[in-house]
Amino acid sequence: MASSSSARSSYWLVSGLALLLGAAIVNQAEARAFFVFGDSLVDSGNNNYLTTTARADSPPYGIDYPTHRATGRFSNGFNIPDLISQQIGSESPLPYLNPGLRGQKLLVGANFASAGIGILNDTGIQFINIIRMYRQLEYFQQYQQRVGALIGAGKAKRLVSQALILLTVGGNDFVNNYYLIPYSARSRQYNLPDYVKFLISEYRKLLMKLYNLGARRVLVTGTGPMGCVPAELAMRSTNGGCSAELQRAAALYNPQLESMIIEVNRKIGSDVFVAANTHRMHNDFVSNPRAYGFTTSRIACCGQGPYNGLGLCTILSNLCPNRDLYVFWDAFHPSEKANKIIAQQILTGSAQYMKPLNLSTIMALDSRI
Question: Angle at the Cα of 196 (from 129 to 241), degrees rounded to 5?
Fold first, then answer.
């Protein structure tokens, strides 16, 4: 009788511990807000609320999203913020301009990203009404005031300091600024190496502003192999190769971004900023698509013209039947399957991909705090 009683009490002890652990994990997931800043690679629909041509709110965008509707994501399905949200056990944060972002939804975080923007304020001027980086950071301040009113200033500060942040910006400063037109204003002002140095110095200021606004865990992505996207193959390719000039830009920019992040962390005295080498991640499947189950890394699934790389992806465009066989969904943006590979590298990638640590290591370290 005594042994069955002790077995029962052991069972309840183990069950109780399991429940406590489960609750702790749920609380951890609930406690960790997620904020997203940047451009169309991470915009989840802010531009739907703006008068701009940089929008993805009509078919066939979203064809593979759970609702099969266009949401404003520049993807056939989930984008990278969605996939990171799944990894941290959270729902995707709503676009900041979405009227549904209020009450409890605010505690999940917010997505401030806006298609067409760059590090520089003069990037994407042709899109007119977009949320430039300085404005995204202003909205982040506004968000903190709103959350402070909801849960108190102290808790709001803690929510931000414990949050995960994703920052994806920089590609448009090349494709929608320096190389937008021949003899662009910026290309007359700077040769390419000096322009890259200027971008890095401006980006550093953005990182420090984010830090001063309370950010303490920030994933910073580089640019992909910009010269190999279908749009650039269609417009600039010679003999079917990637655009040498844009590849040179990516090769100059990405290592300097990584060095700057290491230097900023050293100055702060903590690994606040994490460099995600998305250039290498993309390059893996752009250079060897079949190894990842793709049939092509050159032709977009949705588009028209050479490589389906000209103009916008619309209901009138060519559309591939199986999106999982294509690295690129449209002329510039990865397919959901490509996004999943990138998100997995962010989660578990080695130091070749994630410096100084990957997201699973961050989550393990932070769960001990």
Answer: 90
First CA to last CA distance, the chain: 42
Tokens representing 201 are 């110095």
Which of 281, 70, 276 has the alpha carbon at shortest distance from 168? 276
Residue 172 makes CB contacts below 8 A (sequence gap 6+) with: 39, 40, 116, 117, 118, 123, 124
Q: Are 75 and 89 in contact (CB under 8 A)?
A: no
Q: How far is CA 78 from CA 11, 20, 81, 192, 255, in A?
A: 42, 32, 8, 34, 28
CB proximity list for 113: less than 8 A, separation 6 or greater: 36, 37, 38, 39, 40, 42, 43, 44, 46, 81, 95, 131, 136, 168
**Residues 6 or more apart in contact with residue 297 via CB below 8 angstroms:** 228, 285, 286, 287, 289, 327, 328
d(CA 322, CA 273): 37
Query: d(Cα 195, Cα 188) in Å, to the nearest integer?
Result: 10
Q: Is 214 left (phi over 0), alpha (psi -120 to 50) or beta?
A: left
Report, as residue numbers or ranges, the catalytic residues: 40, 330, 333
Split at pLDDT 50, 70, 90, the class of 35 is very high
Average pLDDT estimate for 286-294: 94
Q: What is the pTM (predicted TM-score) of this model? A: 0.91
Helices 192-212 and 244-268: angle between axes, nearest 10 degrees: 40
Give the helix/strand (H/E) hosting 167.
Answer: strand 164-168
Longest pairwise C-alpha distance within the chain: 89
Tokens of 241: 């190769």
Gap between the Cα atoms of 172 and 191, Å rounded:
17
Contact yes or no for 173/187 (Cβ under 8 A): no
Return the HEC string of 304-329. ECHHHCECCCCCCCEECCCHHHECEC
What is the spatial distance between Cα 326 and Cα 343, in angstroms, rounded to a whole number? Answer: 17
Beta-bridge mates of residue 304: 310
pLDDT one-digit tens code per residue, 50-102: 999 999 999 999 999 999 999 999 999 999 999 999 999 999 999 999 999 99
